[in-house]
Amino acid sequence: MTRVITKQKLILIIFFICIISRIATGIYYIEDIDSLRFALSVQEYDIVKLQPHFPGYPIFCFFAQILFFFTNNLGLSFSIIGGISVFIIIYFSLKLFQIQLNTLYGISCASLIFMNPFFWLMSNRYMPDLLGLSISIVVLYFLIIKAEKFNSVILGFFLTGVLAGIRLSYTPLLFLPIGIHLLKNNKIYYPIFGFSVGCLIWLIPLIWITGLNDLYQSAVKQTSGHFLDFGGTIITDGIWKYRALSMIRSIWADGLGGYWPGRSLQTLFVSIPMLYFFYQGVNKKDFRSLEKNDLIIIVSVFIYIVWIFFFQNIIYKSRHILPIIVFCIVLLNNGVHYFKKDNKIFNNVLFVILFFGLTNVTFVLVNQHTKPSAISSLKDNLLSQSNKVAIASIPLVNYYLKQHGLKNQFLEIENSNDIEKIKLLGEENLILIGNFKESFQSDYYISNESVHYHNPYVNRMWSELSMHRLIKKTK
Question: Are strands 390-393 and 410-412 parallel, antiparallel or unpaired?
């Protein structure tokens, strides 16, 4: 006699699988400068010290601190948040697109989200992006699918305020449904009140911890810096073709695990079936009969794409495309669903190839993720040395190394003037980190060189770092 798993039990099973799988693949080192800031915020939350940087992500940091209090382990704490986030994304994505979980259609969609390589990597990173994405999907569900229920709308507005305390840059995804409710609803005071409460539950403690003046100064400095200096926006990195190509690469290769020049040919086992099912999903869809909810979702995603193309660092930080991946997976799953109706052997075999190819790509990347990144490996190398030679590099690399206990003298390089100042210091021995070797060759011998590397599809930040040992030339 066969035993049928109820929908409630299936939900519970998925929840525990999400948590356990992420704990099993947790990372126990600081992989980049962004992760460092969030790791530091768990022990000392201070926006003025950029722990983390503005807008502070107070709700995410608050949950991380609670988990760290009980676990006393950074990797475990962030992985638990990641596992919960993946579960919420699966559960509410199905509800948003009105897909029944206890069907083949629902299981395939949940599996594609669960096994997505980018979601898995981000669920182990010390970052708020995946939790922010999960709340964004929940808000879309309440403001679109449950739009006729006034209490659901208020809850959606409240969670939008909460989202601003987790991942502020995801709020443009919600602009359209929020705007629709503000225009058509006569009782807009209640939703606005809900949004205000959602903001105040983290803003008041943030002001109390930081101080109003310091918070304002940090907000002005970081906002100006993001858009006009270091944020990687269209203003600072305005090569249109390169930005467009980087976005396509981020979505296709980083986000979906597809093939890209220079990447392993194994990813073709993912790419070919994916292209086929995307074609099926688009070709079989009658876009003339799209419902209002579908149109709202499509336009919301388009607004978000415009937002990140112009105002986010899509060249070096692929994580900004996370919300787009959810909708790509649903479209991919639609293609899978349409072929199931035909029940063709070829299509079934192709789906099996897709899923096992995706599993292979994910497991390879996740396994690589558990090993030290380039900057972490370089740091371990330096910590093992007793000779505390002066280190010259960019400020962010120096900051990372200082926070890991290195007591060397640090010399910062931001421009050519800094290089000339370092030469004038006359240091006999120097460790140079970064691509500055040519600038020092006239005054120093290159005595040794090492390159630290990690897979850029695991993390694009500082995927390759060169370290040179320099000896002063005698005249």
Answer: parallel
Query: Residues 183, 153: contact at Cβ < 8 Å?
Result: no
Cα–Cα dist 337/449, whole Å: 53
Asked if 457 and 386 touch (Cβ cutoff 8 Å), the reply is no
Query: What is the mean pLDDT of each successive set of 10 residues along the chain, which is 475 residues long?
Result: 72 96 96 95 93 92 96 97 98 95 91 97 97 98 94 96 96 96 86 96 95 92 82 81 93 96 93 91 67 91 95 90 96 82 73 93 97 96 86 95 93 91 88 90 86 95 93 80
* Residues 315, 232 contacting (CB under 8 angstroms): yes
* Residue type for position 250: S
CB 171 within 8 A of CB 55: no
Which of 132, 166, 130, 122 shows the shortest CA–CA distance to 31?
Answer: 122
Say what the pTM is.
Answer: 0.94
Helix, strand, or coil here: 230? coil
Indicate the angle between helix axes 150-163 and 129-140, nearest 10 degrees.
160
CA separation for the pair 397, 411 (Å, rounded): 11
Residue 108: closest CA among 345, 258, 363, 333: 333
Task: Identify the burial level of 378 via C-beta atoms within 10 angstroms of its C-beta, where 0-12 means exposed, 13-18 middle and 19 or more buried.
Answer: buried
d(CA 400, CA 444): 25
Select from 402, 387, 356 the least CA-distant residue to 40.
402
If we measure between CA atoms, which residue out of 108, 118, 113 comes closest to residue 258? 118
